[in-house]
Amino acid sequence: NGTITLEIEGQNDNAGGFVAVFVGDELRGVAERMYFPFGDSYMYSLMVYSNVTEGEKLTFKYYNNTTNEIIAFGESLEFISDMIVGDGFDTFKLSRKIQDTLPDSYSISEPYPNPFNPVTTFRYSIPEDGLVQLSIFDISGRKIYEILNQETSAGNYSAEWNADEYSSGVYIIKMVANEVISTQKIALIK
C-alpha cells in the first residue's frame, strides 16, 4: 500500500469529483475531493496498492461529475511499497492535461534526427488496444534490436533508439500492431 495526497492546479474541480490512480488500465485507488481547513484548500487523499513492492508506473485521471468528463493528466509516479507522497500542506500537483484524442490510423512518424548519431526519437500511433512490437532491422532484414513487445492501449507514444553499439548504415524501424505493419527508414552516421 501507499498514500498520495494531491491537488489539481489550474482547473475548477468540484465537490463530488473524483481522482483515480491507475497502472496501465487497472484502477489502483480513488478519492473524492475533501476540504483541508488548515490550508483553506481542497485536496484528494488516495490509498494506492500494488502486488509488487516497487517499479509500477502510476498515472492519474479526474472525473468531473458536473460535465461527465474524464481528464487524464501527464504527471506520474513510481509505486514504492509504504510510499507517502505529499500532505495537506505540500501536495503532489496535477496540472498537465493529456489530450484524449485517439489516432485514427497506425503510423510511425519520421524519426528525428535522421540521419542521427547515436540516438533518434520517433512517435508512433495506434488507434486500438493490442499487442505492439517495435523492432530495428538492418538493411539485410535481420532483426537487431527490440524496442517494445507488449500489450499497449490506444494512443500516441514516443520511443527512442540508442545505436551507440551499432555501425553506420541504413536501418528500418518496424512496428507491428494488430496485424498492421508500419516502417520508417533511418540512417546512422558516425
Descriptive key words:
single chain, 190 residues, mainly beta, five-stranded mixed beta sheet, five-stranded antiparallel beta sheet, 0% helix
Briefly note the structural class of the backbone: mainly beta
Shape: elongated
How much is the radius of gyration in Å?
A: 21 Å
Number of H/I helices: 0
Spans of at least 5 consecutive residues with low confidence: none
Q: Could you tell me how far the N terminus lies from the C terminus, measured between alpha carbons in angstroms?
A: 48 Å
Helical content stands at under 10%
Tell me the number of strands. Answer: 17
Mean pLDDT: 89
Order of helices and strands: EEEEEEEEEEEEEEEEE
Estimate the strand proportion. Answer: over 45%
Report on the biggest sheet: 5 strands, mixed
Topology:
Elements: E1 2-8, E2 18-23, E3 26-32, E4 34-36, E5 41-48, E6 54-64, E7 69-80, E8 84-85, E9 92-94, E10 97-98, E11 107-108, E12 119-126, E13 130-138, E14 143-152, E15 155-162, E16 169-177, E17 180-188
Parallel strand pairs: 1-8, 1-9
Antiparallel strand pairs: 1-5, 2-3, 2-6, 4-5, 6-7, 7-10, 11-12, 12-15, 13-14, 13-16, 16-17
